[in-house]
Amino acid sequence: MRIAVDAMGGDYGPGVLVQGAVRGARQYQCEIVLVGDKASLEKELAEQELSGLALSLHHASETVEMEESPTAALRRKRDSSIRVCFELIKKGETQAMVSAGHSGAVMATAIMVLKRSEGVERPALALLLPNMAGGRTVLLDVGSNVDCKPHHLAQFAVMGSVYAQLMLKIKEPRVALLSNGEEESKGNEVTREAHSLLKGAGIRYVGYVEGRDIYTGKVDVIVCDGFVGNVVLKCSEGLVDALAAVFKEEAEKGLISRWGYGLMSRPLNRFKNKFDYNEYGGAPLLGVNGVAVISHGGASVKAIQNAIGLACQFAAEKVNDHLAQVLARNKDLISFASVKLPRVT
Amino acid sequence: MRIAVDAMGGDYGPGVLVQGAVRGARQYQCEIVLVGDKASLEKELAEQELSGLALSLHHASETVEMEESPTAALRRKRDSSIRVCFELIKKGETQAMVSAGHSGAVMATAIMVLKRSEGVERPALALLLPNMAGGRTVLLDVGSNVDCKPHHLAQFAVMGSVYAQLMLKIKEPRVALLSNGEEESKGNEVTREAHSLLKGAGIRYVGYVEGRDIYTGKVDVIVCDGFVGNVVLKCSEGLVDALAAVFKEEAEKGLISRWGYGLMSRPLNRFKNKFDYNEYGGAPLLGVNGVAVISHGGASVKAIQNAIGLACQFAAEKVNDHLAQVLARNKDLISFASVKLPRVT
């Protein structure tokens, strides 16, 4: 398995990305192609222990900056590290790519270079979140699909179901729409219509869930638009940070609390890890002809390492082939009558 | 100050509501009119210590059930505890009401009996959330306005600004739209148009904030539609519950952790309280001619007590009069050019 890593994206520069790639190559026994400014990357690599690893460099002369418009970046920067990663996939030189760069630019470039899967109007970013039942829940879209039509949500639901079958090994994933209440009378105009579409979609659609069920493990796949998905993730991150701050403040107040803090720091860290995006690493883009895992701009070494693991699994499970099969059976995904998911065997 | 308490709503029945009302009457030195089935309430009151308190009963023969449609409840149950509370306000017998009942029915009844404030198309529920800067942040709408037009969000922003001026004593509250990123290029169709409207609204509108800023205290008022507001709250509740479960699990694993748990339980509880909806009690409905505070269906004794405190403050600050002044200056809130907020003196 060969994975291209965009070694220029992300808020912390190539150091973190190269380190994450080295650890990923070691843990997942895959080949890594680091894409970016050769001189910078050689300097970073010189500091790493590389024996037994299959790492190579591929020069890309440009970098997409975080504040750039995705379309402008696509038009102007034809040799960006993001674009070169996708060209490597297209040429068959790598089987997947990982980027912590400008997520809008990664998505736009993925769609332009790899093309959408047949039957998909809007590729979606799907995140695996840990849940309290000890498993993981797929949340999608956490990408840039901020204004969705009902059939877009329905497509996300079908893609999320296939993803959960293959990545979480759940035979018949329970799929739900995120809403402001569980009753059928709840939801907004878009979710209500998507709810009707999904009843006939041939997946195990179980109706609406509330925000609290993101973390309970009551369902396996939760579908929302990218605006809501982003708010959910950022709000959760903010709350975990708030928690950490409260504990730190408490520990600084007095000896007993500090003692308690010391004793509790192990479970506290475990809790933080459980909901920390660095743990889950990144989100694959579902609905394009190739494997792209998008990591948070502020991704840590560990996040990049985990994103590489995710990319390996995604490619090995041939998620895209399964998706293509399901999508091919139904050219008009707006009417879902004929969608039947394949069983994972 | 006389407050009507809907003593029949809520998931736990009249016991919790009566207890909360008794504590509220004691803490805030206000008169309470308990509205509901007289026989049940007399039974509950018999168990309470009432010396020195001004509590009375007002019979209502019907109760709106949680699963009823708000409009059907309005039409059919003319003597419901919710409706009777609002009739008492209309007749001038009480200055405010508190309910933990069916929130959709409370809102619909408020609008029908009290009427919308002039210039308001959609009354909104505004919640005071604690933030990490040590203050509180107003989040609205957390009610039933699931499908909003841009000018609805703009109206919420103006109402939220007045509310923060009076309730949080902030001279020029920083008001923001909740979005999927801070840059102007982010947001969805509705927030982008609302963003344009708000630039000329005569309030201290500071642009977009992300989900993580709900808890940072970076701004004073955060505006979203009721769908997103509900998801944010339920997701936060779910995450706090998940945290508590992780800690409990850890404590059950071994002696040292249990010891640590004991030492840390005080700050843990303090943290839980900080984000617990029982602490903030309830949310007032902004944009109707009267004071209604809506509490969570699963509200505790403490939540009801706090909701009564909120209702007292809301009525004492004459928030509605100030809102009416601001709204009256601009009959067409879609064009915000002439909205100028009054200074709180």
Tell me about this structure.
2 copies of one chain form a homodimer. Chain A has 345 residues and is of the alpha/beta class. Chain A has 12 helices and 11 strands. Chain A has helices at 14-28, 38-46, 70-76, 81-90, 103-114, 150-167, 189-199, 226-253, 255-275, 277-280, 301-316, 319-328; strands spanning 2-6, 31-36, 55-59, 96-99, 124-130, 136-140, 175-178, 205-209, 221-223, 283-286, 292-294. An 11-stranded mixed β-sheet of chain A has the order 3-2-1-4-11-10-5-6-9-7-8, sandwiched between helices. Chain A is globular, with a radius of gyration of 21 Å. At the A-B interface, helix 8 and helix 9 of A face helix 8 and helix 9 of B.
**What's the total number of strands of chain A?**
11
Instruction: Please state how the strands of the largest beta sheet of chain A are arranged side by side.
Output: 3-2-1-4-11-10-5-6-9-7-8
Report the mean per-residue pLDDT of chain A as an integer. Answer: 88
Order of helices and strands of chain A: EHEHEHHEHEEHEHEEHHHEEHH
Structural class of chain A: alpha/beta
Distance between the termini of chain A: 23 Å
Helical content of chain A stands at 40-55%
Q: What percent strand of chain A?
A: 5-15%
Largest interface: A-B, 61 and 61 residues
Oligomeric state: homodimer
Computed CA radius of gyration of chain A, to the nearest angstrom: 21 Å
Short synopsis of the structure:
Chain A is an alpha/beta fold.
How are the secondary structure elements laid out?
Two copies of one chain form a homodimer.
Chain A: E1 2-6, H1 14-28, E2 31-36, H2 38-46, E3 55-59, H3 70-76, H4 81-90, E4 96-99, H5 103-114, E5 124-130, E6 136-140, H6 150-167, E7 175-178, H7 189-199, E8 205-209, E9 221-223, H8 226-253, H9 255-275, H10 277-280, E10 283-286, E11 292-294, H11 301-316, H12 319-328
Parallel strand pairs in A: 1-2, 1-4, 2-3, 4-11, 6-9, 7-8, 7-9
Antiparallel strand pairs in A: 5-6, 5-10, 10-11
Helix pairs in contact in A: 1-2, 1-11, 3-5, 4-5, 6-7, 6-12, 8-9
